[in-house]
Amino acid sequence: MFQPDREAMPIPELRALQLRQLQAMVHRQYEHAAPYRRKFQDAGVTPDDLRSLGDLSRFPFTRKTDLRDNYPLGLTSVPAGALRRIHASSGTSGKPTVVAYDDNDMNVFAEVVARSLYAAGGRPGMVFHNAYGYGLFTGGLGTDGGGRRLGLCTVPVSGGGTERQVQLIEDLSPEIIACTPSYALVLAEALRARGMTPDDISLRYAVLGAEPWTDKTRREVEAGLGVKATNIYGLSEVIGPGVSNEDAAEQQGSYLWEDHFYPEIVDPDTGAVLPDGEWGVLVLSSMTRTAMPILRYWTGDITRLIPGDNATGRTMRRMDGIRGRSDDLIILRGVNVYPTQLEAVLVGMGQASPHYHVILTRTGLMDDLTLQVETDTESAALRDEITRQIKVQVGVSVKCELCVPGSLPRSEGGKLRRVTDLRSAR
Ligand code: DLL
């Protein structure tokens, strides 16, 4: 552990700390951020109503629309002169979501990312190949700050330029790499294309996140780059990368740094808080942020908190891999489908590669889903079996197209779009 006194804090102490921090946070917001004060008033609560962690459920959620409505900096609770960094996430439409950090926030960011990189296998003195995008996206600069806190030597290569990335990996001997899982697959393919094997490079650990991925991808990346791959999760609104990370020796869910981020899992329809173990929407409160702390942020990400003991001695809870986003949901002829459910079927069948793409079209009133899957073994039998398994396991009829390896879209360094929606284009 990077900070054993924190990561393995006795649970009663941790709960008391969380309550104190949440209380301080809602007071600050009430006093210094007018939009929160109005939201609290509309919900009929005051900061003094937060007497136990259970009382948190009486407080309103914050949603992406709250950030948009208060664009750019309406939710900040410190004077503008105290801000030290702005990040933004592009979003799919309209204005970007802007998030602001003061000195304290930069410090929290570096600490949680350092913990994450340590859990992922990083140790002081290692060379760190950082292929997350640098710039407004939180991925590059966020992991950079954490790498520095941990004592890594960072190569800030950013996304793209795959040939140059492979060359730098050969020349600078990094032991740890961070990038999106889809880009890690691209790097593994590029290595193979050069006739190289994992033994020819020095990498040992990969820290992958910013988009959903499966165990199949984990195995491909681990075999292709010769690494142990762990999942890093986070989002700009809450901080960026480093809300949670798996432990490389365990790889069973990501430790959520609960002394900074208070997690709840809620029912996507009713917003009711669900017990540990149940799947629902992850809601996060960034308790220790000061510039733009966010209360009960509705991430839209579907996951669960994993109940039971872990193998590392940490007391903080782990979250499972993200099953989908509530806004990625495809409603196909009345059936709810997440792209990751389709991927899970492919993974279960074992034959298809992790490269797939979903195309949505509409003929008349009917929506159709075409699942494109790369495979070496092009056969009508495999295609029919994929269609059948999806019907059985997910409950929808889809069309399946088998494609030759290398033909589907690849990550260009950033997040990979898995779904092309042509329904409204008509
Ligand atoms: O993607 C922060 C980040 C950078 C995380 C680098 C990990 C590594 P945003 O651009 O604001 O921030 O996007 C956040 O990406 O709500 C999830 O839907 C998705 N996401 C992030 N990490 C994971 C992950 C960064 N490990 C949104 N698994 C989140 C699945 C992820 N989805």
Task: Characterise the protein shown here.
- Catalyzes the activation of phenylacetic acid (PA) to phenylacetyl-CoA (PA-CoA).
- It is an enzyme of class 6 (ligase).
- This protein is of the alpha/beta class and 426 residues long.
- The chain has 2 domains: 1-326, ANL, N-terminal domain (Rossmann fold), CATH 3.40.50.12780; 330-421, GMP Synthetase, Chain A, domain 3 (2-Layer Sandwich).
- 31% of the residues lie in helices and 24% in strands.
- It is built from 11 helices and 21 strands.
- The protein has helices at 4-7, 11-32, 34-43, 64-69, 103-119, 138-150, 162-172, 181-193, 215-225, 339-349, 380-393; strands at residues 83-89, 97-102, 127-130, 153-155, 176-179, 205-209, 228-235, 240-246, 254-256, 261-266, 280-286, 297-303, 305-306, 318-319, 324-325, 330-332, 335-337, 356-363, 366-374, 399-403, 419-421.
- It has a 9-stranded mixed β-sheet with strand order 4-3-5-6-7-8-9-14-13, with helices on both faces. Strands 10-11-12-15 form a 4-stranded antiparallel β-sheet.
- A hairpin with a 2-residue loop joins strand 16 (330-332) and strand 17 (335-337).
- The longest helix is centred in the N-terminal third of the chain and has 22 residues, at 11-32.
- The chain is globular and about 65 Å long.
- The model has no long low-confidence stretch (mean pLDDT 93).
- Bound molecules: 5'-O-[hydroxy(phenylacetyl)phosphoryl]adenosine.
- 5'-O-[hydroxy(phenylacetyl)phosphoryl]adenosine binds next to helix 6, strand 7, strand 8 and strand 12.
